[in-house]
# Entry
Amino acid sequence: MKKTVKMLAIVLALMLGLCCSAQAITQSEIEGLWDVDLKPIFVMQGIPEDQIDAFLELIGGMTMTIEFTADRKMVMETTVGAEVSREEYEYLLIGDTVVLSDGTNSVLTRSGDTLTLVDPDGTEMILTKHSASAAAPAASSVADIVGVWSIDVGKMLDMIGIPEEEVAEIKPYLPLMSATMEFTADGRCIIATSLMGEELSHEEASYTVDGDIIALDGAPAQYTLVGDTMTIVEDDLELVLIRKTGN
# Structure
C-alpha cells in the first residue's frame, strides 16, 4: 500500500509541476486530541513497570491528554483522581520540531495514530490519537469495497507536504486532475491518474481484505469505511477515497 501511495503522490506532484520534496511533518498531521502513554514517563521517573498499576490505584487513577489546535495552541490536561490541571502554550512548527511559547522544543515523528515527541535531553513522550480505537467499523468483506473510488487529491497534496499557499494557488486547477482506485470482485486493484481527461498512469495490483486490514500486493494497511468514504492508513500515510456512483 505504501508503494502505491508514494507512486500516486509523485504522479500528482508532476501534474502540478511541483517539487515532491517531503516536509518532515505538517500541522494537519498533529492537530487534534492525543492520549499520553504514561507508563514510559513513570518508568523514566524511577517507578518499576510492574508497580505502575498499583501506583495508579493508590492515587485514584491518572490520565493525560495533549491537544494541538488549528490556531496553534497546545493544551495539556492532566487528571489525577477527580482533580484536573490544565496548561496552555502557543506552538510553532519548524520542520519536524515543535517550539512552545515557554521556549521548550521537541522533535516530532508520526506513525499512523502514534505521535512521538523527543526533547533535546532525550526524554520521549508517546501519544496516541484520542479514540482511534473507537473508529467506525471497517468493511468486513471484499464485496463492501468493490467499485471505483476517487482519491481526494487535496488531502493527497497535504499529505506529501505541499505548502498551503501553493495549494491555494493551484486550487482552481484541481478539478482538471483525477486519480482513482478500482477494486474488482476478483481481487484486482486498478490505480489510474489523469489530467484534463488524458490518462497519465495505469497500474494494477492484487488485493485482499481481512477484517479491517487491506493488503495490496501483500503489503497490509488498516482501513475504515464510513458511508461512501474509505480511509486507508499505513504508518504515516493516509489515503482518503470517495466511492464513485452513477457509473
Q: What stands out?
A: Residues 16-23, 132-139 have pLDDT under 50 and may be disordered. The helical segments are 2-16, 27-30, 38-44, 52-58, 153-159, 164-170.
